[in-house]
Amino acid sequence: MRENLPTDLTQSDLYNKDLAPLSPEEQNWSMWDLAALWVGVAVCIPTYVLASDIVKAGLNWIEALIIIILGNIIITVPMVLNGKAGVKYGIPFPVIGRAAFGVQGIHLAAILRALVACGWFGIQTWLGGEAIYVIGCKLFGLPIVERLCLGRFVGFGIFWLINMYFIWRGTESIKWLEEWSAPILILVGLLLIGWGWYGAGSFGLVLEQSQQLSTRTAYVENKGDNFILHLNPLRDKSGNFRADSFRLALPLANNQPDTSVFYYINSTVAPVLNLKETFPNLDQTALSNSSKTISVQFKQNGENGAKEQVSKFIPAEVSSSNELEGSGRWALYLKFLTIMVGFWATMSISISDISRYTNSQKKQMLGQFLGLPTTMALYSFVGIFVTCASIVNFSDILVSEDAPWNPVALLARFDSAWVVIVAQLTMLLATLSTNIAANVIAPAYAFANLIPQKLTFKTGGLIAGLVGIACCPWILLGSIANILLFVSGLLGPVLGVLMADYFVLKRQTLSLSDLYNSRGEYAGVNFTAFVAVFLGVGVILLGFFVPQLSILYQMSWFVGFGVAFGFLALFGKKG
Length: 575
Prior knowledge:
The protein is an alpha+beta fold. It contains 26 helices and eight strands. β1 (218-222) and β2 (227-231) form a beta hairpin.
């Protein structure tokens, strides 16, 4: 331990060896250990998917990278600052948080953070299970199906057990995992870029495809008394559309969608269809009030013995334009910047769970800045570049919605079973290294902090794993971006309270003995801290429910953090 605590405190119901201050000998992580941890954490499927989502929303690849780099630099600053107490005292987040929220109040904040991590644990474990499912299908020659199936749940269960193994082995096994995974994952990212570049024949040509990915495949322009359908299926390297024809499912007055007729597509001119003229019985009222929608399916006729390709049905939203302009574009910038910051909102709160293992503020600062923004920028670029390359290298992809937006889907498209298996094993490694460090350590400490005399880091990790299953990640997976935006709003105020308390009220000095004393300086619940959190969340919700103040919700993390920090700094009790 950092200092000799009195015997009565080591017997306190707030104490166990996992929550105790680390000794100088135990604080043996170097700058490179922390940087390697961030490489292992940041190289993950959600990083890849989020980067692609920004392009899919309508921004180009340069705008996407700027948002990603800026967002990760922003979040690394409070990450480093909030990690200082962990370095100084060698204690995890739930113990440090006792000073800000009270030894009883910290349970609410810590469990909130833990539940978010458990949700992410479930999502990451499901994604890792997907890789195991693909490997199993390739090994046994089984078809890979898109729907939920027994094989996917079996893969999920196997990967869950692998995660639990490392938690049961403890933090040194986690350090070993991150050190070994970091160089492998960087190499895999570079190989994926090389594959995309080689297949397309031109680095610049690949990046030009981001324009296709950011353009909506189908949208309906509302002209007041008429509706104009605009279609933009993918083009090949020569600029010709890959699809030969399309058919529509649209609301007609007789309630019978017409999906039987395929309409020919000119190879170079984007199809534009006057719906009122083409379909006189179109149900315009249903289309105007969005009670019914139009969907489009594209087809590529097989030539020279090639198999016919058909896209899935693509919904065509009703709008006035296909371009993001003015305030709409800036709103999208702010939304994704908040999402990028929110991506690591949970880690910024509990970073002391990690920083406590190093003995130098300089090491933790350099390790985090070297590891987080640089890795996120590199692997986000990998996600954007490889997704763009896939629509050049796979001629059967007719619309951007059918592109392999995540690496598991991409790697499953390769013909060689052994290439797919080796590639999916790297995805397993990436997902495992992220899941353990980002989504299990924090809830393990949080649950152990609930009943320190009964629960340990290991049993807390097991509880986190069980909650992750209960979250039904196969349902959560489709809403990652929206989940992050909501979560960042909730957790920004918690971080604001932690930093205002430590830097403004406590002036970076804590009473270590009182952190383990249920009747000491930090006893009970600090209601002022919770008022600060509720005010921060309340202002964000105001932006959610009042359209004129929507900017408050779009910038939820920044708003919540600022409100909570300012309130506690002004009205909190100085130590």
